Amino acid sequence: MATITDTNSAYLAKIGIITFFEEGHLFASFGLADKLKQQGYEVVYLNVADFREPVESQGFLFKSFREDLFPEGYLKQCYASAKRSGFIHQIKEMARIERILAEAHFDGTTKNIVMGMQLDLLLVDIFLTQMILVAELARIPVIPFSTLLPYWFDKQLPPPTSSLIPDNTRLNRFKRYLSWSWLYLNMKTEQLIYQTLGHYNATKTA
């Protein structure tokens, strides 16, 4: 199994990638990582332990991120909670992650992990703004990027909220279509709910 201690002087530079801790964010970054690898860059992912298998299956190096805070099985627990609480859970979990990362600045552990990877550049998902500051503290060049740019119906890419890995098979294209349709339906439903509640509250206070 490849580790981040493997080095190869033939690479142009060593680039790290960290995405938000959801499958949709991770899988949406594989295209970018593959392009970088094809152009001669060494790519290593920094993420929660549960993502080791999907990352390494794509041929990229992997470094687990803060297993003391996000141990293996963390995602399974999150998905189980999400089924019970849905959108509310996602918002609470994003806030919790931001708080954990903010507090982690003070013990220096996160900074030391990033410095130990000996990166030439770190690409950080904009959903993890705290990691941009960590990279700055570690004196590593950092570029924020977004996995949400294809956030409207794109037949070539699945929505970032799905767990689909893009490929061009007929079955995968059909699954992408269903995923986008489901996302669109959810967005319209939420919009209708908010409008209804807003109208109700306005009527109630009038």
Strand-helix topology:
Blueprint: E1 14-18, H1 23-28, H2 30-38, E2 42-47, H3 52-57, E3 61-64, H4 74-85, H5 87-104, H6 109-116, E4 121-125, H7 129-137, E5 142-145, H8 170-205
Parallel strand pairs: 1-2, 1-4, 2-3, 4-5
Put the structure in a nutshell.
The chain is an alpha/beta fold. The protein has helices spanning 23-28, 30-38, 52-57, 74-85, 87-104, 109-116, 129-137, 170-205, and strands spanning 14-18, 42-47, 61-64, 121-125, 142-145.
Overview of this protein structure:
This protein is α/β, with parallel strands linked by helices and 206 residues long. Helices cover 50% and strands 12% of the residues. The chain contains eight helices and five strands. The chain has helices spanning 23-28, 30-38, 52-57, 74-85, 87-104, 109-116, 129-137, 170-205, and strands at residues 14-18, 42-47, 61-64, 121-125, 142-145. Strands 3-2-1-4-5 form a five-stranded parallel β-sheet, sandwiched between helices. Strand 4, helix 7 and strand 5 (142-145) form a beta-alpha-beta unit. Helix 4 (74-85) packs antiparallel against helix 5 (87-104). The longest helix is centred in the C-terminal third of the chain and has 36 residues, at 170-205. Residues 1-7 and 199-203 have low confidence and may be disordered.
Number of strands: 5
Average per-residue pLDDT, rounded, comes to 79
Shape type: globular
The main pleated sheet reads as: 5 strands, parallel
Structural class: alpha/beta
Number of helices: 8
H/E element string?
EHHEHEHHHEHEH
Taking the alpha carbons of the first and last residues, their distance comes to: 65 Å
Over the alpha carbons, how many angstroms does the gyration radius reach?
A: 19 Å
Helix amount: 40-55%
List the strand order in the largest sheet: 3-2-1-4-5
What ranges have pLDDT less than 50 throughout 5 or more consecutive residues?
1-7, 199-203
Strand content: 5-15%
